[in-house]
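Suppose a classmate hands you a notebook page containing two proteins, each written out with its sequence and a corresponding row of structure tokens. How would you begin to make sense of it? This section walks through that situation. The first entry is reproduced here exactly as it would appear on such a page.
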Amino acid sequence: MRTSLTLLSLFLLLTSTTVMSAKLYKWKDEKGNIHYGQTKPTEYESAEVNKPPPPPANAPDLNKPFAEQIRGKNQGDPAKPDTAQMDPGTKASQCAKARNNLTNLQNNSRVRVKNPDGSVRLLTDDEKQDKLKESQKQIDYYCN
């Protein structure tokens, strides 16, 4: 009984989110009747009903820092902040992190990394050497 109740609850939860994410259109036919549907009619002028509202005019652009990094990378800039203008605490933190990464890479013969899909794999020897070089560059950049 408990299992069937759990399955029913799970089914209702999954189907309710699917219905909520579907687009809903509203239109008026030639007789003046108002209709609603999930498919946009071709013969009538329609409007999307559950469209999310536009962002406020004064909303901050959360993508701006990422766009600046991408622009910097495309221009050949390493897209790293100038360490002379960096907060000393942040610089020290980045330095410690880079040193810790280098130590871990040097002391462990098998290094695991997480793939974008969430799976875990071991670094190849070539990848490990590339990571060692990158860690050393970060130490040179943040610690000196």
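The notebook's second entry, a different protein, reads as follows.
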Amino acid sequence: GYCAKGAVPLIGKRLLAGSARSWRHDFVYLRAGLEGMCFYMFQPVVRGGAVVGILACDRITQGEEDPEAVQGFTKSDQDFMQSAVDVLSLDWRRKRATEIQRQSNELLTTFLRIISKLSATLNIEEVATLLVLESKRLLNYETAGVALASEDGTSYTLISGEGFEFNPQTLIGQDAKTWAQWCISSADDTLLISDFQKRKSPMAIYAPDEIPLEVGSFLAIPLGVPPRRRGAFLATHRKGGQFHPETEQFLRILCRHASVLVENAITHRQMEELAVTDELTRLPNHRCFQDRLDEELSRARRNKTPLSLLMIDIDHFKKLNDTYGHPFGDVVLGQVADIIERCLRMEDFAGRYGGEEFALILPDTNRDGARQSAERLRAEVNRTLFTHEGISTRVTISGGLATYPKDAGAKVELIENADRALYFAKRSGRNRIAQYHVIHAMQLPIEFQG
């Protein structure tokens, strides 16, 4: 105890009973053999500036040997003890260095494995999920999440998380008082707080309405740099001092890589959307419609449910272009597309088929349901006043309906029959919806030019 407190060697001789300073019986380091001990020598073992142990030795009497005849420790003995302590310290440093190297190798191996997994996908949600799940190998967090900023920077969503509840569909505004929003909009760099519980901050971590979290350690890493900051990675632990700077450095590099991947994923998604989106109406294009119809027909066959196809055409569209000009015609196409989208259910699909013609896929919809949906859409277009640069006019649409499996059993037949019904609606006066099974049952003549 004396040696450890002073961190200096303690060398002495036992004082026999009756001496001015008799031996104190609480001054022991062995449970037995106290009576025979004549000399003692304690050498502190210091590691990292702290005494972590005591190397102790003594000299004792042998049998009837006179304690006064026992030779004390010499300078050579003291030097030998110091050498022994130095060997212990060097061995400890070697083992510690080996352990640090092993941990560093494990961190590096884990880091490279995560990088490899992240680089294998161009899906934003997969990148975020991998970042959260795999980073636990580096960071022993209790909660972690990825917040993704919107394109215009006015909101963010939590697209991946662990250890807390969240809704990936919820848009959280930029005025939200959360650490996630702060990291996205204001953080200059990584923020690592080891004593978060001492902060008297009322801000939530991930979302304004979250259940309050018990936080001792906190880490926030921005994804990207202004002005194209894409989001933030955040992690917490209820205990303080759980996140170490070395691990934080690995995560910072990881998040920098993830931000590049998110940027690439966003660009990839935009390119995919451009490839399947009509530039004028922002609706899916003809190719996308064909692919979606294949999928929906397969689902309808598998589930034995009906599926209706509605083909729509803007009446007298050529005359509209000739009268008011093509820019006005483009405005009409865009506004009709907007009306179609407003009238659709979540499960419905609308695309630009070509020219002034649109195609609507109505899953799990029979003939009557399809008729009601089509009439509602026709009436909405009919009551809309289309205006552009001082020009205002009204337009009408005609539509043709065919329903699987009663009107057609295959894709090509379904499209042709819906188009036949559309052609009949236009030939019989326009601004109306025709159903293939009605005109077919009545054996009405259909002049169809496929």
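A careful reader of the second entry would note: The chain has a mean pLDDT of 85.
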